[in-house]
Amino acid sequence: MPLEQPNASPAESSVNPASSGFAPLHIPLFRDRWIASTVSSLGTWMQDTAGTWLMTLLTSSPLLIALMQTAASLPVLLLGLLAGATADIFDRRKLLIFWQAWMLGAVGLLAVLTFLGHISPWGLLAFTFLLNIGSAMNNPAWQAIVPELVPRELIPDTVSLNAASNNLARAVGPALGGLMVAAFQRATMGAGSVFALNAVSFAGVIWVLVNWKRMPLFKSALPSERIAASIRSGLRYVRYSPPLQASLLRAFTYTFFVSAIWSLLAVVAKRDLHQGALGYGILNGSLGLGAVIAATQLPKVRRRFSADRIIAASTLYSVFTMVMLAYVRSPWIIIPVLIVSGSAWTSTMSTINTSVQLGAPAWVTARALGTYLMIFQGGMALGSVTWGFLAEHTTTPTALASSACGLLVTLPLVYRFHILQGPLPDHTPYQWKRPAPELVSPFGVDGATTGLGLDAEYHEGPVRISVEYRIEPERYVEFTHAIHQLRGVRLRDGALRWGIFREAADPSHLNETFVMESWLDYLRSRERMTAADQTIRDRVHALHASDERPRVTHQIYVREITPELKSPTQEP
């Protein structure tokens, strides 16, 4: 069944990709989204600083303070797959509006309670958790709409600009948040004001989304998957995609150890550097300032160095940063160290994020991003708990030094999992030249089996697809290599099982067999095939020793139908 693929957007024809990295901002729709996102991120980072500092005033426990980072990260760990699945199933525009409204409501209620002085450490953690449930469900859809706004060749620059947006807010937001808290006699009034401003910032994003006339890149002609099936197919794709697995492993390893910087910075500022809310905001903002610098310069850096080298250099500098935070007590030394550390952070995470966005086709983009965000925030959440617990039971320098040692030791172990190596696959949906095979009911073309009709049979299964090849002996080795590459395609696109068998009496006769859950899933697998997948398939078919195409048969598992279940209209 053919895909409904819209024509190239006006952005693709009017924008000439530039080496400056700012070309996406020439696209009005992306520019509006970018501005709204920057304002919202500014409010978010002001809230992050105000909330964390408020927690240091409500409790002296390093663990509870570190749990603020966990409350921000744990929802993504729990909901990343669900968020990705819903973003691939439902209308992303409506989904984004709902979750932006959720976050507005959560932070608005937190502001009211804070103004009234009815907030406790556990209450602050609870509302931070609720706010970030909305963020967790929002983020996969928010990132997945990027290919709908800009042409594919601008995606790396777009990811860098999105990182610059977030980190520009990170550079200014923490200092503003700390300044607002310090400007009031009561910290609760200052924190409540920050929370209220953050609530207003979500309204701007909602306004942009309401006025967006969406044209999705991928629209299936088949019924939507159910959420559970969508999650399974997303996980199956990641399982059989080595490039995505490499990106996820590198993301988890880096965030788990580097989370010590984010989760313990407030403790370092207060206990070791003897700074107040404004001082903590400046330290946090230093990380953001470095991140902005990196985001604007990253396109130039990418042209000179490979992704693996960028990540390795950033990792080594993060080790240095944690050692400095552990043992240096001068803010004037720490601030420039944190600025460069922010550059290292953004260089790593922007590179990995780009690899995920370019490594998945449109039909599974949000699920891949949901999995990435789940792994990313999972590393942050688990790391924050680990280093906060260690700091509470030993010392903060011990926790920071331990995380630095762990990051240094794991670098050579994960370096062999390469990022953005080699040419990027062409994920353009393949346009089939042959129609899908017809499904015929065993009781006739009207599909009357049990009175449910032919549509019900689309959900029957499993379905076994068999492909027969004739391979000459001198091409046997080449064929085995090519067909096992095709295995990954079949499994990523929905196959439950796959195998290749040769006939014992005639080794030139080989049979490829793969099993789909239902006929509908088989039709979906045809929709999901990309141009890159078809290149692998064509390579296999080119080795077939016949002028005719390999013979393909489709078999559906036959279940017992008892006479009493037959339709009343079916004659005996």
Automatic annotation (TrEMBL):
Keywords: Cell membrane, Membrane, Transmembrane, Transmembrane helix, Transport. Pfam families: MFS_3. CDD domains: MFS_MefA_like. It is found in: Cell membrane. It comes from the Bacteria. The chain crosses the membrane at residues 63-83, 95-119, 189-210, 248-265, 277-298, 310-327, 368-390, 396-415. SUPFAM superfamilies: MFS general substrate transporter (SSF103473). GO terms for cellular component: plasma membrane. Gene3D superfamilies: MFS general substrate transporter like domains (1.20.1250.20). It is a multi-pass membrane protein. The keyword Transmembrane helix applies. The keyword Membrane applies. PANTHER family: INTEGRAL MEMBRANE EFFLUX PROTEIN-RELATED, STAPHYLOFERRIN A TRANSPORTER. This is Major facilitator superfamily (MFS) profile domain-containing protein.
